[in-house]
Design a protein that fits this description.
Farnesyl Diphosphate Synthase, mainly alpha
Length: 307
């Protein structure tokens, strides 16, 4: 029983929920800052629904990527690629992952109905939730399987960037204002880079299994250049967003993140991603950059509320 419970916890990828929770928290803080509008019940239900959608996404991904993840573990897999290997090791039956994906999806829909019709959060509540659920669930699942159509990475950028910020803000205020779009851009492009760089260690297995994700389509060298381009966009969009009224303390908080991203750009230019050990560190640093970018906004906006 202890082994099974550990398997379920590993399968749930709990640390990776932060990339969805942080943007949702940002949207909620922003609503309190701009409109002094905050409902704790709506906030917690919204966070719970976000977690359920992420669980559904992770579970169904583990199920449908079973073979490619098993092959990846034998090739260039690191801690940030190739799935959790829980199903491959037999710690949890594959059918449980599929069932869990459907149960969590249904629970997320149920919470969405409560938010829209009991708390009157607005007519966009259900549509915003459906965008996240359809994009996440069918990232790996047929018939769409976005990851093999070359647009999965873009959808992840939207769903872990703009969508949680906009949804959290909308649930509290019933509207989506311009500043939401601006602060979502750096978050979206940095999470795009997280997905992109995590495809590097899976690259050989993905080619063999004909998993036509973005990196398989463009190759590692072009992928490295795309990573650099997204980093440049994150710098520019982050700075431009402060023209919309974000407190400047956010730029000071962001300085360490900027230094890390500059180092990552240098690594990609030098093709250091070919070093398996360093690639794992690059994957970890890219996740840190995404969380750090979001945190910079949270601290900056939060300071305007409490100071």
């Amino acid at each position: 029983m202890r082994s099974l419970l550990k398997g379920y916890l590993t399968l749930s990828r709990l640390p990776f929920h932060l990339v969805g929770i942080f943007p949702f928290l940002l949207g909620s803080v922003l609503s309190g800052s701009l409109f002094h509008s905050f409902n704790w019940s709506v906030f917690f239900l919204g966070i719970f629904a976000t977690i359920l959608i992420m669980l559904s996404t992770y579970y169904i991904g583990e199920y449908y990527d079973f073979e490619v993840d098993r092959l990846s573990a034998l090739m260039e897999r690191n801690r940030f690629s190739g799935g959790t290997q829980v199903l491959q090791k037999g710690l949890v039956p594959p059918s449980h992952a599929k069932i869990g994906a459907h149960i969590t999806a249904l629970l997320a829909i149920f919470i969405g109905l409560i938010l829209q019709f009991h708390y009157n959060t607005g007519y966009l509540t259900i549509p915003l939730g459906i965008i996240g659920l359809v994009s996440g669930f069918f990232y790996s699942a047929p018939p769409f399987r976005w990851v093999s159509r070359g647009i999965g990475e873009i959808l992840i950028g939207i769903c872990y960037g703009w969508l949680p910020v906009a949804t959290a803000f909308y649930l509290q205020t019933g509207r989506i204002v311009e500043i939401v779009n601006w602060i979502s851009i750096p978050i979206a492009v940095t999470i795009f880079n997280v997905i992109l760089i995590n495809e590097f260690p899976d690259y050989p297995a993905d080619i063999i299994k004909k998993k036509k994700n973005l990196l398989v389509r463009i190759g590692k060298e072009s992928g490295a250049l795309l990573y650099i381009l997204m980093t440049l966009i994150s710098w520019i969009s982050f700075l431009l967003s402060f023209r919309k009224g974000i407190p400047l303390i956010g730029i000071i908080v962001y300085i360490p993140i900027f230094i890390i991203t500059a180092i990552l750009v240098l690594f990609m230019l030098q093709k250091r991603y070919l070093d398996r050990d360093l690639l794992e560190k690059i994957c970890a640093m890219t996740i840190f950059v995404n969380l750090g970018t979001t945190s910079s906004y949270i601290i900056a906006i939060g300071s305007s509320v409490f100071i």
